[in-house]
Amino acid sequence: MVLPDNAFELYGENPFQPSLWNRSGAPHRGLPASIRQIGYNEEKNVERMRQLIDFTDELRDQALCHMQEQKQMMSRFFNRRVKNRQFSIGDLVLRVLEASQPKNRNKLNPKWEGPYPVRRVIGPRT
After folding, report:
1. How far apart are CA 25 and CA 43, in angstroms?
2. What residues contact 87, with CB distance under 8 A and at least 6 apart?
3. pLDDT reading at 19 higher than 90
4. pTM above 0.90, yes or no
């Protein structure tokens, strides 16, 4: 007696095909319709889609307002911990290397360069 190599030869259908569906890909006639199929109404669906299209601009505006509020909250949270520093002419400062040499980064390289003397003060936070 020789056993078949795969389920298609044994049962006559693909093992990936759901057992409740026939070969054409449609459900069997004897199965009850799902809740989505029972409650579906073409006219109501078209009307609801029109309402959603009209409502999308309002949803975008709400999302934009929410994003701006979140951005303000993040900036307040960050700025709360920032220390205000005033530099005067002649002070020595360090400069971050990431800004001047982003490609030559290595774990063992220094992260700061300097010290550089302040030559002029442009504004209160520079």
Report:
1. 27
2. 93, 118, 121
3. no
4. no
Preceding amide of 115 cis, omega within 30: yes
Q: CA 79, CA 71: separation in Å to the nearest integer? A: 12
* Rg of the chain, C-alpha, whole Å: 34
For residues 44 and 15, give the distance between their C-alpha atoms in angstroms, rounded to a whole number. Answer: 38
List the beta bridge partners of residue 95: 113
Local structure of 14: helix, strand or coil:
coil
Q: How much is the pLDDT for 14?
A: 58
Mapping DSSP onto H, E and C, the string for 79-116 reads HHCCCCCCCCCCCEEEEEHHHHCCCCCCCCCCCEEEEE
Q: What is the mean pLDDT of the chain?
A: 78
Angle at 110 between CA 108 and CA 115, to 5 degrees: 165
